[in-house]
Amino acid sequence: MTKQEKIQEAYGTYWEELKNRVDENGWFKVSDYRERMSFIETANDSGFLIYNHFFTGKCEGGIDYLRPASISGIQHNNGWIKIESESDLPKEDCRCEFIRFSGKQLYGRFENIMGGLFVDESMIFEHPDRTESTTHWKPILTSVKPIY
Question: Do 20 and 71 lie in a common domain?
Fold first, then answer.
């Protein structure tokens, strides 16, 4: 599924009404106060607006934006890199998580030999252009210890 298809799916029945106002990351600009209030479920005691379970909001430069909560993080795909060509593979050896075509999520490493191999914890080697290939990957980032 593409990013655009995922955004459209998230909007569901709202898509036809809002599709011409939705940006590349799923946000749409709220046109006026009345429209903004139609997406608000309640206001809590501290004055914060609580959007219905479906939408999440942000304000930038005095302009309100909303999008479905289910696509929160879509702008960076939650840190995952979709493999569509060789240029999407890691540039150097690294520890990483990867997802196979079947949806199975594995931990292991990428070795930049023979066109690139993903090696899972059980030492199964897989070349990325096989049928049951890896579709996404993201580096496993090791945290830096505090200095003091």
Answer: yes
Number of domains present in the structure of the chain = 2
For strand 28-29 and strand 40-43, is the pairing parallel, antiparallel, or unpaired? unpaired
Give this prediction's pTM: 0.67
Q: Which residue has the tokens 């075509």?
A: 101
Number of Cβ within 10 Å of residue 11's Cβ equals 21
Largest CA distance in the chain: 61
- Shared domain for 72 and 91, answered yes or no, is no
Residue with token string 């959007």? 51
pLDDT in tens, 16-51: 888 998 999 999 888 766 666 666 554 444 444 445
Distance CA 81, CA 71 (A): 16
**Helix and strand element counts for the chain (H, E):** 3, 11
Last residue of a domain, one of 76, 93, 109: 76
Is 102 part of any domain? yes
State how far the Cα of 70 lies from the Cα of 91, in Å rounded to an integer: 31
d(CA 129, CA 17): 40
Distance of alpha carbon 71 from alpha carbon 75, whole angstroms: 9
